[in-house]
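User: I'm curious what two different proteins look like when written out as structure tokens. Can you demonstrate?

Assistant: Sure. I'll show them one after the other, since each token string lines up with its own sequence. Here's the first protein:
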Amino acid sequence: MFVFALPCPPQARQLILQYGLTLSDLDRHPKIDLAIDGADEVDADLNLIKGGGGCLTQEKIVAGYASRFIVIADFRKDSKNLGDQWHKGIPIEVIPMAYVPVSRAVSQKFGGVVELRMAVNKAGPVVTDNGNFILDWKFDRIHKWSEVNTAIKMIPGNMSGIQQACTHPCPS
């Protein structure tokens, strides 16, 4: 059995090298047997909020090319409804030129407040490894997340932090 590690954030790449694992990428291994990742929140229907750390598009790409996707989350991430535990909103990665129209479209269609995530240790917005901005959508009610996810995907210029790849809970 061979194990290749495909990191999403640069920090993970450093850990892979530090611990002597074999580093790879989607160019060399476009088919992934197993992807493992965390989540910011998991609701009772196994909908996930991901991307709070700002790497949501790359994480979604890796999960999408994996035959199996396992989410590891402890009791602090478990909730009845999305938003019960994670109060920072659903991250939406957006192409910089589209952040204003995407913000408006999300808030008009679904309510709540959409904010451009601002950097803490530098001036301006957070910029992802892809060169994009992050919007945080603080929703004000429970939604049908599969419909919201599909509708947000249809807005040009973004990738949402809602994920529904997790379908089977692990035993406690």
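Here's a second, unrelated protein for contrast:
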Amino acid sequence: MRISGLLSEKTISRLTRTDKQGVIEELLDLAMNSGQVHDREEALRAILAREALMSTGLEKGIAVPHAKTRAVSEITMALGVSEGGVDFHSADGKPSYIFFFLLAPENAAGPNVQVLAQIARLTHDRSFCEDLRKAESPAGMLAVINDAE
């Protein structure tokens, strides 16, 4: 499954918030731009409940806040990049800079895992992450993803 097919310039942005809760809400607002999130409060509740179980802050500046929720009927994504980094309680204790935000229907186990695997594959490449952070616009970020896929 191609990540680029799940994103658009309307769902990608440089982030302005500097705290975990704020970043989650900013990413959710980006995902709302897709028109696929039917219930913002339910989506927020699902993401926060998932984060309460275990932080989705990974290593090397990557975070993947994600949840299954009845607030969407198909996989919905947003992408945010933070210039200064955000404490996302990452596995390595370092700030997160790149945020892949994912909402999936409650019954979407297979596709959900495929998207998470694709994110892991892409972000394993250090130059991909550097290029994504350097991109100056949503179109530029989307081009970086298209080129990597």
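A detail about the second structure: The chain has one domain: 3-148.
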